[in-house]
Amino acid sequence: MKNKRERELLERIRREGEALEIPESLRPEEMRRILDMEGPGQVQPPQKQSWEKEEKSWGTEKNTEDKRRFIVRRRSWYKSLAAAASICLALGGTVSLWQQGFLQRAMNLAGAESSAKEQMAEKGVSGGFLNNEEQKEELEKQVFAPGVEVPSRTYEEIHQAMREVWEQQGWFSAADETQRDVRYDAAGASPLQKESAEQSLSMAKVEDLSDAAFGGTNIQTAGVDEGDRVKNDGRYLYQTVWKEEKESVRQQVQILDTREGLKELCRLDGFTDIQALYVWKDLLIVIEQKIYVEPGERREPYMIACGDVAWRDGYQEISFYDITDRSHPREKKTFTLQGFYSTSRVADGYFYSFSHYSATPGKEDQDYASYIPRVEGGFLEEKEILMPEGTRGTSYLVMVSVELEQPEEFVQTTALVCNSSLFYVSSDSIYVAENLDMERKSGWNQDKTKLTRFTYQKGHFILQAMGELPGRLDDSFSLDAHEGYLRAVSTVREYQIEDILDDRTGQTAGQQVTKERQSNALYVLDEKLKIVGQIEGLAEEEQIYAARFLGDTGYFVTFRQTDPLFAVDLSDPGNPQVLGELKVSGFSDYLHFYGKDRLLGIGIEADEETGRQKGLKLSMFDISDPTNVKEIARENLADYNYTRALYDHHEILVDPGQNLIGFAAEGSNRGKSWNNYLVYAYEDEGFIPKLCAETRMEDYYGAIRGTYMGDIFYILYEDGRVKSYARDNWAVLEELDADTE
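Above: the chain's sequence. Below: its structure in token form.
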């Protein structure tokens, strides 16, 4: 049954359509043909305008150190931007109606021919799923049933709920904000670099890959791949590289063959800020963050880093390339969506992406471009937006999925109104964590984290549960799903608030914090995200730095001046118990199981009395007896004080089967700096150094990554250089220079 607003929209379309001259591409015969070809809900706009090409110049910036800082830390800057773009199309007549989503929505309704399709439409499921009969039958059998009832809301109701938050925050001042005219192109091809001299390279398919062991991306959940800037499929290496020419900088995807030495096959060119790569069979996925720039406008990278970016200027391109012939990738499809990239996954033949979009008040509730995200040029439909009761957010988590065998369209597009902070993806569920604003009432108040659980299957997100737990999470490793339960460790901060009374009137004039306290806790939650077990009050005045779970045992590290490593028995979900606590100096910021009874820690050494940091360290713990965990090896790396591995687990190579531990580390002293890639083995209860590969610190692109194939180890530099080493004696075998053009 169509609601009043839908009927009004359809009537508006009819009236305006009668007054317009119908283009050939929109005549009934043509539309019927397109519908027959594409199926209900999949008709694409007949004409799409192009994004203006982004300015890639660095301008006349003379401070090269600022450039280097931007490049080295660019990912963290993007994560710190709390804003997303709002893209507005400005085409008139029927095309305008189409691109606003009105005409497409009407055609979707008209094309809903079967009860199964209508049922799926009610759940916000896209038409792409319907074209696969096998999947459709399976879906009809399952009859997806959300575990949480979420009221349907119109755009205007969403705006009203957000408006209340904006008014309380005191910044409802964007009513006069002009809307940017952004053009859209879902299929703009990134040009390939000119063919290299290796014309004789033959086409190489997936089945040609080596059977030897090779280094993959360091992931959290087995079978769920994560995006990275370096990929290794057993024969080919793929990495993002930065190329500087005069005053401009561009990013490329480099593809190398390793079969008979190092050979660069090609470079995909024209990217601005690649967030992640995936390689799945003969498919390459490139996720790129872009910032819209008006024609003639200068938008230098350091301006983006400093937040000098309109909140609605961010958008992403997700490009899929056929790499059956690695030397000549062919673009298959590029999707465009608003917002800033958060994370993504690939599992069971489907690609899942999660991004952040921030709404702004706009001129009025009809100004949809200010507060409704766009995907592929059209607004998300009302039924695709989830805004649970009591939601206080003005941002969206936008979730999209693609079937990798046929990356022609999104399988599902869904948005949850929330201020998402981190994600954990298990083998069957997606957990979204959101930091909640602390209550400010008289007495003790504590910070809390809101959790939302979606199940995912064959490209579909189904909302199943929502809950809360005290405290805040350190990172995704603070969460772990096991046998129907979610285990979580958090740092709980509490504040005692007292009302300030006016001496004359006795009325409350304000509030003040009189006391603070901090501790750590472990919680066990069921599938409905209800707490069923907990341990609270651990390690007062310390905070969690790292966590890892293995079956029925959990390990986590807290720190203030020493490093307590806790072991917790989780075999009884309703009654978790601390098994043991080991105190050592410093702290581990990342934990990784090294075989069945060893736990590797990478972190910072610190003075036991003062807590002053003294450089990096490696620790190996014996966890064969969780009640008596022991540190059996330690390697102090006093010459190094920073590694990205502490904050991004993709930056570390840990392979117990090959006995390899590799990561890049940076150090400095008295104005001198160095950046090396270190490789260690663990032998005879000690860390044995195997390799110390240097980079040129004068380069802007100092990031280094390591991987291996069989008995050869590879070091990849972000300027495009690659070195290979023999793993038996670590001698250099070959070096590929960066300048191969």
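The first helix runs from residue 4 to 19.
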